[in-house]
Amino acid sequence: MLLHFLKKHKFLLTVLGAVVIIVLSVYLFGLAILNGVLRSAIGVPVSLGKMRLKLFPIEVGLYDIHVRKFGDFKSQVASIPEIFISVEPFDLLKGKIHVRQIRINLEEIVAERDTNGKINLNELQKKLAEKPRVPPPPLQIDKVTLTMTRAQYIDYGFTPPITKVFFLNVYNASLEDVTNPRRVTEQVIAITLKKIGMKMVTSQVSKMTASFAEQTRASLSGLLGAKN
Predict the structure, then answer these.
(1) Is the CB of residue 146 less than 8 Å from the CB of residue 181?
(2) CA dist 222 → 58, 136, 213 (Å)
(3) pLDDT value at position 163?
């Protein structure tokens, strides 16, 4: 009787089996994202607030992510409210991770300069250049979309420390055909340092211009006063 039922409903059982495998793969993928891909991609410990999984299509939502401080630095590296991931389901059945799209909403990244003149983002770049202790699972990411709101610069070389906030104004910047997730982190660091550097240079030029104008006015006032 049972054998007859199995033969009669072989297709249905195959479909149900495939669904079960996909569901388990989704959960395993979520764990891999948390424990493998994120840690390897960023290079330092990461804390995750919550994770949501959706089937058909397979989508993973990571929320309230904090890239923690490392070494002797005092500040966390970044605050990321949301990372959205869309996955190709059938490749999971083949043991491959094929990501159609990743959307990253980065609220704040912190560039910290310590008392020895070291900058955390520069040190993080060095970590990313090192070979990871645990190789990440092989993956293919078709497209990464990146939004970056602001950067905070903290300089502990001064007492009290200097703190400045810079708005990065990066909306939907994209990377395509990514096979190494560290490339995304490297791009984030490069954008941050470039934006901070340009804005700080502009700020210094503005201060120098204002100072020069003030000195010129003072000199002219002195000359006019002397003539009178």
Answers:
(1) no
(2) 74, 69, 14
(3) 92
Report pLDDT digits (tens) over 96-140. 778 899 999 999 999 999 999 899 999 998 888 887 776 666 778
- H, E, C per residue of the chain: CHHHHHHHCHHHHHHHHHHHHHHHHHHHHHHHHHHHHHHHHHCCCEEEEEEEEECCCEEEEEEEEEECCCCCCCCCCEEEEEEEEEECHHHHHCCCEEEEEEEEEEEEEEEEECCCCCEHHHHHHHHHHCCCCCCCCCEEEEEEEEEEEEEEEEECCCCCCEEEEEEEEEEEEEEEEECCCHHHHHHHHHHHHHHHHHHHHHHHHHHHHHHHHHHHHHHHHHHHHHHC
Structural domain spans, the chain: 2-219
Q: Tell me the two tokens of residue 173.
A: 């910047």
Residue-level length of the chain: 228
